[in-house]
Amino acid sequence: MTRARTHASPLGRHRTMHGQVVEWLGLRIVSGELPGGSQLPNEAELAATLEVSRGGVREAVKALAAKGLVEPRPRLGTRVLPRGEWNLMDREVIDWHSRAGDATFLAHLLELRLVVEPGAAAFAAARATEEQLLTLQTAYDGMAEHADDLPASEDEFVRADLAFHLTLLQSSGNQLIEQLGRLLETGLRHSLQVLSHPSTSVQETLPLHRAVLVAVRARRETAAFRAMRKLIETTADAAERARGY
Fold it and tell me: What is the topology classification, in CATH, of domain 101-242?
């Protein structure tokens, strides 16, 4: 049974208790605070630190093991696994990388987008329904509406930008590409937030979003591919500038 709390716990108050413990440990592993090869504190220590039951710690460790982050070993304790063992396509693992501000992860995400999104744009030009084209137009209009009010309108702008990219992936007509978009949603949202701060980045990328939209609506597959490739390349350049490179 969880003991009564008399002071602030290291855990936040959101989500379920189990989710809080998983998140607390997961963030520390992904950020490198608990590096690969290190041992987690034992069950009793973690329970005392986090003010939860030992059973709660045990279940959280099982969840992290299922994501490839740790390896519980009988009588030897729980070892943090090297990064190569992690399930990097797990939605929570993606979210933890984003929240940890992992610049390498953001760069890798952009590389993955460069591989996937131009092809998705070409497929969308051939396969998008009229309803999807309307959703794409609405998302672009939302971006254009809020672009001049950044950073005050960051939430609205990022929401529209995210809708644009997810709709494009969905419009590809390929279920695996669409599923990939849902998996990457948290990381994509983070990268869009980062890039919405410098107004020069938006000034560069907004016209390129329009070029993608125009090509898709005109059913010009090659033009859509090239426009999206240019958009991701420009986004990658802006990300490097945002990191101070």
Answer: Four Helix Bundle (Hemerythrin (Met), subunit A) (1.20.120)
